[in-house]
Amino acid sequence: MRIAGTKYCGHDSALCLLDTDKKTVFAISTERVTRIKHDYLDITPILDAYQLDIVDYVAHSYNDFEDKGHDGELREKMTYNKEIEKALRLIIKPNYAKDLSLSRTEKNKLIFKSLFNNFSAVKSYYVAKYKRALVKETPEGSRRAFTNYIRLNFNKFNLKPKKIFFYEHHLCHAIPSYCLSPFNGDKALALTIDGQGDGFFSKLYVFNGLEDYKLIGQSTADFMGNGRFLSIGRIYEDFTRAMDLRPNSDEGKVEALAAFGKADKDLFQQLMSATHIDKNNLSINFDIKKIEPFYDIDWLKKQRRRTGDENFCASIQNYLEDTIVDYLNIAYEKYPINNLCLSGGVAANIIMSLNIYERTKFRNIYVLPPMADDGLAIGSAILSAIDLGKDVSWLNDYIMPYFGDEYTREDVIKALDSFDNITYEDIKNDWPQEAAISVSKGKICALFQGKMEFGPRALGNRSIIANPMLEGTRQKINSTVKRRPSYQPFC
């Protein structure tokens, strides 16, 4: 049986193809196909690039068709939004995420020019906008529309899924964090934490086994209007925006810069006093009046100017660390279990994870490698496999998340030969020794081997390696290879 688990659309959209008969897994995010970081397009580019032959079932990682959380992920209008986005991609032809940040005037100019050389894309754009305007949304209508939308897109590639499942967002985070962890089969707590999904920004589960789990805590992502939600992840996102960085993408830069500063006492205390942990219900709650200023970007920018960039970043970073550490210490008192699984976009914050290890009693901590929304694809695939009565215990044999595509030696040579400005020598099986010698001499090397990692971490198969003992290595990689701020560290 072949199950396509998905984060079907939205940032970090992804697909995970689970073959329960052959016991294989293939997983990839849309960004790896389009080259648009954290791509929010639906997974059509993946289906187009990989031409899957059989898909028996499809699963998606949201199920709030009533839109109680106001995130709009499953509203019927969202299906037309995605058609509009796909039409715009054909018009804009972006190479990078920044190419999509167009003003209305710039976008309209491109649409007008495309009337003469890409009329079909312009027509698709306006037809989708017209249909969206006519929609009168109901939960039943949204379920029907989203099911048909997914089914029709699979049908375009001659794939005929028998059924489409929809699963709760945070459970899709938690399930793979436990299933792929070394604790699978033992007791563990699983904490999810992100911006929001299906009305919540965090949930806490206790697992006794893959099919034996219980929800023991949850934190609501209250809707603040204008597309804003009240959550720790969203507050961190607004600090990122106030730093004139790209929200939902550059939070790691805030985390990195925080290491060079000290939390501003007033700003930090304001955040902490606005946050309350309910010990009985294991939930994180906010005083709306006290937290409201942090949703005002102009106010945040004033605080940034007052405190300085480093201290501004340290304030939100320390707040995140202290809040989650306090929450988990309370959880441990009620559920003294040594194993902890972490998932959700906020779990990408390495310094937070370090604080959890150093300042709580959890001794064994596992962070799901595709911790953000791309990992939801694995979660929805696992949940549907379980519901269909299939064994997925074999997934625990995958110690590393090498779930992506791989290339033959001939593929690599063909790619190299396509460039006039690249010379190479094939040293065959001697490459590990040659790579080690090159690194020791201060050269920067790239590792390209085996299957691609699933998730944001480079784990040896698609990695840049260099000698950390040599002065200037970090600066050289940041400035000439990665082309990112000099203060960002490397693992």
TrEMBL record:
<dbReference type="GO" id="GO:0003824">
    <property type="term" value="F:catalytic activity"/>
</dbReference>
<dbReference type="Pfam" id="PF16861">
    <property type="entry name" value="Carbam_trans_C"/>
</dbReference>
<comment type="similarity">
    <text>Belongs to the NodU/CmcH family.</text>
</comment>
<dbReference type="Pfam" id="PF02543">
    <property type="entry name" value="Carbam_trans_N"/>
</dbReference>
<feature type="domain" description="Carbamoyltransferase C-terminal">
    <location>
        <begin position="438"/>
        <end position="491"/>
    </location>
</feature>
<dbReference type="InterPro" id="IPR051338">
    <property type="entry name" value="NodU/CmcH_Carbamoyltrnsfr"/>
</dbReference>
<dbReference type="InterPro" id="IPR003696">
    <property type="entry name" value="Carbtransf_dom"/>
</dbReference>
<feature type="domain" description="Carbamoyltransferase">
    <location>
        <begin position="2"/>
        <end position="382"/>
    </location>
</feature>
<dbReference type="InterPro" id="IPR038152">
    <property type="entry name" value="Carbam_trans_C_sf"/>
</dbReference>
<dbReference type="InterPro" id="IPR043129">
    <property type="entry name" value="ATPase_NBD"/>
</dbReference>
<dbReference type="InterPro" id="IPR031730">
    <property type="entry name" value="Carbam_trans_C"/>
</dbReference>
<protein>
    <recommendedName>
        <fullName>Carbamoyltransferase domain-containing protein</fullName>
    </recommendedName>
</protein>
